[in-house]
Amino acid sequence: MTDLIQKLDLSEFIASFKDFFARPKEISLQGDENFYITILQELENFSLPPLPSLANLDHPLMLLQKFGTLKLDEIASFAKIIAYFSMIQKSSLIPKDGAFKTWLEKIIIPPALLEISSYFDEEGQIKEGTFAELDGLKYNLSRNKKEISYQFSHLFSLEKLSSYLVDRQIHYLNGNECLLLKSGFNHVIKGMIISRSQNGFFYLCPESIVKLKERESQIQDAIEDLLFQICKTISQSFQKHLSFLKFINASFDTLDHLQARSNFAKSKNLQFLFRSQTQDLILSDYAHPALKNPQLLNIRFQRNLLMITGVNAGGKTMLLKSILSCAFLSKYLIPQKINAQKSKIGYFKHIQAIISDPQNSKNDISTFAGRMLEISKILNSDSMLLAIDEIELGTDSDEASSLYKTILEHLLLKNNKIIITTHHKRLASLMASHPKVELYAALFDEKNQTPTFGFLQGSIGKSYAFETAMRYHIPPSLIQKAKEHYGDDKEKLNILIEKSTLLELELHQKNQQLSKEIQKTQRMQEELQDQIKHNQKEVQQTKQKLQQTYDEALKILKSEAKNLSQIHQNMNKAHQVLKSHNDKTSKAKPQSLSIGQMVKYLHQRGVIVGRSGELFLIECDNGMKLKVKPQDLTPTTKPKAQPNQPKINAPKNSTGITLDLHGLRVEEALEKTDKFLSDCLLAGYDEVLIYHGIGSGILSRAIKEFLLAHPKVIRFEDAPPQMGGFGAKLIWL
User: CATH code at 696?
Assistant: First the structure.
């Protein structure tokens, strides 16, 4: 494949495509091509989040198979893959009824692996709160480093040491923080001399720092030991799900292939040309990736052999490479610059290119022998796309014409598609009458004496060797002698060929002009159709928005109507109860009532605040005001119920009040915390303690986020070890 990419001048283009991969891989995509085409078509309408950049995980998978222990970064790589698939499975961006969604739903991630993936952040580091012991060690390490900084600040502030300081910087030497001191410092400070400077000064690691560095080393060793144990435990869990890890790793590569192709197409404004069941090869507005300012290629290759003849440096080789490049990129589902809607490409088992190297220094015999060797390897191939540049290179043209005619006819019998370029008219004339042969001639601008890089279908082109030689400053006298040697008969034949070409060119130009008019009309029709479709789409979208608004309004209306209906039902029930009660109490002796008097109505207590005709206006304890008949009220002398005072747990020997959240769900814990802090504020407490425990760390993180957002919390920190440590928060209000 690499050799073919180089022959077709696609190396730079393929390299730019590979930059879109999340991890390095070959461009070939193994599997169901039709499935991949469907996914690529769906990806044109939405974009996935970028895949995480990862290394190849084949070695870690092999290590797991041998019951080995993975490194932390290798475990994190698997965690990133699992977390990514879990994320996109829940994404609302993916169409619900597409093939991509169906493919994702078939990936069922084991809960144990999902839990492990939650241990890591986006950088592949273990999240805080996942392992309490690890958090404690990291906390101690951080405090130790702060203590080192504090010790150095303290030393810089000592007046007795200032006269010995060369500078007020912390120097790092052999992994140690040092002071640079003048001689005689030993009367003021003790420590370990690390080295001497070129000026005779001493690099000293103070004694207090030496102890702190020893402690730091011990903490680091403890962290490494703990991480190894964590990796060992996770690796054992991975070994139980080895088959799934292999599957998800392969699925990641598949998704990487598809997403890279989609993103490459969008970023470079390229199109996919998918292969179809056809023998035709039609390219519309195609541009070879290696050309900077290409003339767009339009070609219809509908037979089995395309023979390209004509002027030197007229683009014959590039036409050959363009056709093969298009077929190669289509085979590997790589987007390219082409009008895909008007183009077609068929299926080919193999794509072969026999292209001469202009810088090759081999002699004629070795060149021809090399050609024969390459052709001998493909004589028995079928359903192949073959290109041969300068087919008669390296031997006598008359002999080669007969030989290659026989070879080409043999290859045509095996249903191969062949493209050749040649300057020799004998082979072209021998093959021109073959029903499976199609001719293309490179055109030459007679007026300006330059190639046009255009092609005329159905004609044998002249090589214009004499004209090309003159353009490159070969003396006219030499060219005239060459023409004399060439002979009048052959020159007359060339003149006939030229006249035929000119007539065909004139016809071609008229056809081109007519084609342009037709294309212009077609474009106008397409634009009109696009505008109609666009308008229809806008109308449909407007209808959908109106329908959605209507549905939402109807939903709200139904909800309100339901509530209103419930209110009416409750009022009717209350009315019936009141009516029944009135019937029972109407015969009772009326009570003497006055404004300000405490009364009881049904199950409510309240106070009379006014009177309206025969009705009394009472204000209930719950704040509700009612108009009630006097016979429905009962005088009472009980005082108005006082609101419950906040209950506060203030144990002895504590710096404040406490709240224990152990065993609660996050929502319940946050609700209790909110009420607890409100009660504490009302009671006047300014220092409180909340126990949330360590556990999985979920509750700890939720409490931390809640306290950060609370407007009355001045600050908070993890409690001291004797008061709960990482499992509690000390809060100042």
Answer: 3.30.1370.110
CA distances from 393 to 137, 256, 360, 390, 678 (A): 75, 44, 12, 6, 94
| pTM for the predicted model, two decimal places | 0.60
pLDDT of 32 strictly over 60: yes
Judged by phi (left if over 0) then psi (alpha if -120 to 50, else beta), residue 228 lies in alpha
Tokens matching residue 690: 């909340």
Q: Is residue 415 part of a domain?
A: yes
SS3 readout for 296-359: CEEEEECCCEEEEEECCCCCHHHHHHHHHHHHHHHHCCCCECCCHHHCECCCCCEEEEECCCCC
Residues 376 and 446 placed together within one structural domain of the fold: yes
* Whether the predicted pLDDT of 645 surpasses 50: no
Chain center to CA of 439 = 47
Could you tell me where the beta strands, DSSP code E, fall in 9-89?
none
- Domain match, 46 and 150 both: no
The answer to whether the CB of 182 falls within 8 A of the CB of 201 is: yes
Asked if residue 558 is part of any domain, the answer here is no
Q: What is the residue range of 141's domain?
A: 132-219
Q: Residue type for 263, please?
A: N
- Looking at the structure, tell me whether residues 345 and 445 fall in a common domain: yes
- Whole-angstrom distance, CA of residue 689 vs CA of residue 681: 13
Q: Please give the C-alpha separations between residue 501 and each of 47, 459, 477, 494, in angstroms, as whole numbers.
A: 51, 7, 27, 10
DSSP, res 165: B
> Residues 143-196: pLDDT tens digits?
999 999 999 999 999 999 999 999 999 999 888 899 999 988 988 899 999 999
Q: Is 412:378 a contact under the CB 8 Å cutoff?
A: no
Sheet holding 715-718, edge to edge: 657-660, 687-691, 728-732, 715-718
Residue with more model confidence, 502 or 229: 229
Are 182 and 58 within one domain?
no
The residue with greater pLDDT, 51 or 611, is: 51
Q: Spell out a b/e string for 650-669, using b for 16 or more CB atoms within 10 Å of the CB, else e.
A: eeeeeebbbbebeebeeeeb
Joined together, the tokens standing for residue 629 give 């008949």
Query: Are 203 and 340 contained in the same domain?
Result: no
pLDDT digits over 689-721, tens only? 999 888 888 888 899 899 999 998 999 998 888
Which amino acid is it at 547? Q
Q: What is the mean pLDDT of the chain?
A: 83
Domain count, the chain: 5
